[in-house]
């Protein structure tokens, strides 16, 4: 491999379970992606619950091995699962990481006995809506004026569902 190949090759990621050592990076990523971000303490409090699980996309090649490219946090209870939050580093949007993280969460929800997976998404988040629709999620509800943007404008949260079985 030439030096040019090394600097121009595509970044590679693998999916791993979300662990305590990932919390600070996950919180920083959440801060970059959301108007009301969660702290590493809030993510830790969720992850410490028996029903909550998560995954990270960690870089496996290049100079910054183990850089966090994204994460997903989910909950499974009583035959249903929910995506609590998902975020992909802005440098890696449209790279397939969101798809891979959602696939990991969907598989784990199935293992935990879930028959359906729910999530809420800001009606203005076209990239996320496109991903969820490609995965087969359908809109089943709406929470009007649920999210507040940086400029104070309020937008709806679309409630979406995917049947897993």
Task: Describe the model.
This protein is an alpha+beta fold and 165 residues long. The chain has helices at 3-8, 23-33, 40-47, 97-111, 126-135, and strands at 13-17, 52-59, 68-77, 80-88, 116-122, 138-148, 154-163. Strands 1-2-3-4-5-7-6 form a seven-stranded mixed beta sheet, with helices on both faces. The termini are far apart.
Class computed from helices, strands and strand pairing: alpha+beta
Q: Secondary-structure element sequence?
A: HEHHEEEHEHEE
Helix content: 25-40%
Which sheet architecture does the biggest sheet show?
A: 7 strands, mixed
Spatial strand order of the main sheet = 1-2-3-4-5-7-6
The span between the termini is 45 Å
Estimate the strand proportion. Answer: 35-45%
* Average of pLDDT: 90
Number of helices: 5
Low-pLDDT residue spans = none
Q: How many β-strands, per DSSP?
A: 7
Rg to the nearest angstrom? 16 Å
Shape: globular
Map the helices and strands.
Layout: H1 3-8, E1 13-17, H2 23-33, H3 40-47, E2 52-59, E3 68-77, E4 80-88, H4 97-111, E5 116-122, H5 126-135, E6 138-148, E7 154-163
Parallel strand pairs: 4-5
Antiparallel strand pairs: 1-2, 2-3, 3-4, 5-7, 6-7
Helix pairs in contact: 2-3
Give a short synopsis of this structure.
This protein is α+β, with helices and mostly antiparallel strands and 165 residues long. Helices cover 30% and strands 36% of the residues. It has helices at residues 3-8, 23-33, 40-47, 97-111, 126-135; strands spanning 13-17, 52-59, 68-77, 80-88, 116-122, 138-148, 154-163.
């Amino acid at each position: 491999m030439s030096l040019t190949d090394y600097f121009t090759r595509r970044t590679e990621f693998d999916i791993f379970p979300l662990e305590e050592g990932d919390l600070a990076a996950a919180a920083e990523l959440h801060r970059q992606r959301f108007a009301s971000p969660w702290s590493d303490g809030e993510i830790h409090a969720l992850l410490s619950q028996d029903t909550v699980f998560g995954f990270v996309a960690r870089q496996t090649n290049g100079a910054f091995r183990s850089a966090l490219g994204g994460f997903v946090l989910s909950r499974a209870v009583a035959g249903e699962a929910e995506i609590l939050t998902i975020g992909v580093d802005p440098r890696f949007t449209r790279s397939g990481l969101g798809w891979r993280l959602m696939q990991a969460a969907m598989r784990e929800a199935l293992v935990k006995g879930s028959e359906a997976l729910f999530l809420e998404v800001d009606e203005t988040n076209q990239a996320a809506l496109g991903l969820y629709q490609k995965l087969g999620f359908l809109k089943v509800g709406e929470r009007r004026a649920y999210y507040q943007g940086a400029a104070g404008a309020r937008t709806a949260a679309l409630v979406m569902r995917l049947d897993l079985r």
